[in-house]
Amino acid sequence: MAASPLTALPPAVLVLAAALVTALAGRRLGHLVAGLTTGLVTVWVWVAPAGTHLTGTLFGFDAVFFQIDPFSRIVGLVFAFIATAAIIYSWATDASERQTAYALTYVGSSLGAVFAGDWLTMVVWWELMAVTSTILVWDYGGKAVRAGFRYAVLHGIGGSLVLGAIAWHYAAVGSFLFSAAPGGMVGTIPQVLAAVGIGVNVGFIGLHAWLPDTYPRPHIAASVFLCVYTTKTGVYAMYRAFPDGHLMIAYMGGAMAVFGAGAALLQNDMRRLLSYHIQSQVGYMVAGIGIGSALAQAGAFGHVFNHILYKSLLFMTAGAVLYQTGEENLKYLGGLARKMPVTAAAFTIAALSIAGFPGFNGFVSKGIVISASHYTFVKGPLVVGEFYTLELLLLLGGVGTFLSFIKFGYYAFLHGPYEGDPVTSAPRPQQAAMVLVAALCVFYGVFDGALFGLLPFDVTDEAVVHHVYHTYTVPHVVEGLALAAAGVVGFAVLKKPLSKIGRVPDVDAGYNPLVFYGTRALVHGVTETYAAVDRAAVGLADRAAAVRADPSLLSRFRADIGGSIFILMLVLGGVLAWLGIV
Amino acid sequence: MSDTLLPLLVALPLLGAVLAVAAGLASERAAAAVTTLVLAAQTGLAGWLGSQAVLDGPLSVGVGGFVAPYGIELVVDGLSAAVLVLVAVVSLAVLAFATEDAPGGTAFYAQYLLLVTGLSGMAVTGDVFNLYVFLEITGLATYALVASAGTGRSAVSALKYLLFGTVAASLYLLGVGYALMATGTLNMADLATELAAAGYDSPLVLASFGFIVVGLATKTALFPLHTWQPDAYADAPDSVSALIAALVSTVAAYALLRLIYTVYTPAFFEAVPVARDALVAFAAVSIVVGSVLAVTQSEIKRMLAYSSVSQYGLVVVGLAIGTPAAVFGAVVHLLGHAIMKGGLFVAAGAVADLTGARTVDEYAGLADRFPVLGGASAVLMLAMVGVPPAVGFAGKWYIALGAVRAGSWPVAVVIFASTLLTLAYFALLVERMFVAPASESVLAATDGGRDGDDDTDALGPSPPSASRPSRRALALVVGAAVVAIVLGVVVTDLGTALEPTIDTLLSP
């Protein structure tokens, strides 16, 4: 591959450099530099030639620092683009230049991980991503600090598991390069370690509690950044680890889709609700990766692309509401549609997108995954009519999504008049960021071919995919409308019971105290054991000293002449017996 | 040519003993002078013949007109050369201390030379019966030397040693008898082939092995057959303690090594693995129990004596494991231990002469007052613990290496633990000497016992005889410390010199 200015260095380096400039340049100039840089990177990623660039060695192992293929390109593209939108939003929400600089380091390390061509480079960026995102959370102070600490611990554990997986993988393969192992992780134990380690990042059920714990706490603009990178880098890494899919991962994805949506339905905190939806939506992507067919993987990566658009838009709208009202709880909001029409419209677009309503981008990519689960995956134990197990899970997740966003929209924008302090419309720059992203959500929903062009596999070509996908067919549209109708009916039924639910505990309510008291017990046990050993040793030394101070204690046992010869005879007898003579 | 001079190694000190008695008729100093001359000549002879043996291969000569293969032989190979030189050098060196410290009397010098006769004889003999004869000569001389302190305690200890040692020697002789019944020969080289012919699993051969090992293990003072040793070491005159601690058990351990590998040969261990296991277990217990007993002692000389129980355990473990590295380590530790323990006993004697201090507590603050003596003693102690590059480290290292190579992991653990155990009692002593405030006896010694206040004088354990350590004692202790370190540094050269001997020993 000939050297080209476009492949002279990884995009991550440019973004990290921009982070440094942003931190030093002051708020106005800093955000300008940051936005221009990420905008530039967006174009750069779009036009850079595919292939393996910047090979070298890392810690003495062969490494690839910049690898562009259809998978890394689509993820990198949307990462860079949404960073630009989020920087505009940061500017509009009074974020400090320091926070944006931290956010840029986070963006940079995510880009580094995505464009890595080997496991070692990726895991280095991966760990850096955990560090920078933790700093981004911590920067806000207050309750975000402890949540950030829990986040750091969990991601530290996850990162270590991934590290263990790739070390084991290296032992089996002899190389860290992706190209050396086209089948992904080699061996059962590396696969389990990788699945669980990456599972922390993508929010496997049971490992997901950091999502709703962390994302609602920092600055509203920081949440926009956070909702994009960690989980989606995880999806990308999951693809690298399991390029041929895995049954368990597919079902885990389906379960996540249902669990996340169900848990979201029970939330009243806006950003907490949205965080559960990250898990739910990532579930679709994980299901796509797990199914492993070309159609499913195209759907998964399309969903990564679309999800980043509408989920960041959702966090922006939630942030805008919070910015204007100072209130995060849906119970105390309402009637904001008139006060904040642009925000309400953007929310509506984002909600219809995430729920998969025909005409919006979520409908397109979610449809691909569901189609893949029907045509290219096993039927599974549960078959209802024409619908198979995983497909049913994914559809059920869709109903849950509709339900919870109807709830969100109803309580935030429709329900009753707003009773708080006077509210004005969101500032123009915020509106600009929201409108920009909202327009794309609609664009990719209507012009599905534009999205297909970005996907790693051409889902409309029979030679490439097992089952050709058409977005707008009658059954598919009916399916989307039916899900929406089920959501509306469901909400009408569930509205009353839901309004009575307070804060619902998640698994972290169990494991946080468990870890805390467990660690304390461990420390206590170790120190007490040490103290006991210490006491025993000191006691022994004291006894020895006492014996030494009073030799008569010991001299009682001194053998006299007769005793000595008696012992000698005993030993002789013993030795002869041992030798088998007597 | 040099073969024919071998009998001199035994004859010279034997005749010297007679000469010393004769000279003693004139004056005691003449006896001392004769002894010194004889030992100097012995040292020269041992050095010359030893170097011949190492350079040109083993020397041997038949004695008394008995023909091979039954003949009575004197043999010097690399191993016996090393022991011979050790015996000659150490006895000459300790004599320098003995003439100062000695209880005196012509008889003392005669006994001293007889002891050297016995030890040299054990080293050169190539015949199991003559080994018994020399063992008894050694024993009798030692009993007399222990008793030469002239105190009641020393008499009792000498008697205990006499009875115990005689029984042990008799056991050895019984073992020789069984071997003779099985083979009809007493020559070591001949026995090696005849025993193999008789069959290693024959009860006669096994019984001979058991009796011989128990007899020599008693002489070597392995736990629980050590009971004579602390009493003998503690109650003998200081110079005698130094001599017998350095040499007597050392040569007994040499005899054990010689019998196991020259007479029974490694093939015996192959055929009867329980024999090896028994020896290893025996020695490993010795290492641990000896150290523990040493920690509990308050008297310095007893502590050093129990330390020997532990260190000989280490030597026997090495020779029982039987890999080349382990056997070489055992030889190195045997030689190194003799130097270090001899030096420490001389130091203990010098301290007792100076201050009257004989217990650990009385050693408090010693190094402040006598920095050179204290420092050299500390070097010897640390060398014994096994701090590199001293010889104590080298010996343990090779033994441990051998154990690891042989796959005897429990033994390797015991060996590494023995370092800690040795540290346990010597660290105690070093702490007393260097850190603790001075004891009254030490204070009294440095005050000269005169310009302190009256209380100090009244409470001092014994009136000090001098305020500075004697030059000879100091030279011996410092010399021992230097040799301990130099031996450790040149241990690879020693390995090269002894390699052919050990290879011959270990070839089945």
TrEMBL record, chain A:
Subcellular location: Cell membrane
Membrane topology per record: Multi-pass membrane protein
Domain of life of the native organism: Archaea
Molecular functions per Gene Ontology: oxidoreductase activity
Keyword annotations of the record: Cell membrane, Membrane, Oxidoreductase, Transmembrane, Transmembrane helix
Transmembrane regions: 6-25, 32-51, 71-92, 99-117, 123-140, 152-171, 191-211, 220-239, 245-266, 278-298, 304-323, 344-372, 392-413, 434-457, 477-494, 561-581
Keyword Transmembrane belongs to the record: yes
Pfam families: Proton_antipo_M
Annotated ranges, domain NADH:quinone oxidoreductase/Mrp antiporter transmembrane: 116-373
GO CC annotation, single: plasma membrane
Main location class: membrane
Identification of the protein by name: Na(+)/H(+) antiporter subunit D
Automatic annotation (TrEMBL), chain B:
Region (Disordered): 446-469
Domain annotation NADH:quinone oxidoreductase/Mrp antiporter transmembrane: ranges: 126-422
Phylogenetic classification of the source organism: Archaea, Methanobacteriati, Methanobacteriota, Stenosarchaea group, Halobacteria
Keywords attached to this entry: Cell membrane, Membrane, Transmembrane, Transmembrane helix
One matching Pfam family: Proton_antipo_M
Transmembrane segments: 79-99, 106-125, 131-149, 161-184, 204-228, 240-261, 281-300, 312-336, 342-360, 372-391, 411-430, 473-491
Lipid bilayer topology: Multi-pass membrane protein
UniProt protein name: Proton-conducting transporter membrane subunit
InterPro entries per record: CPA3_Na-H_Antiporter_D, NADH_UbQ_OxRdtase, ND/Mrp_TM
Cellular component annotations (GO), alphabetically ordered: plasma membrane
The organism's place on the tree of life at top rank: Archaea
Record's subcellular location: Cell membrane
Location, primary (coarse class): membrane
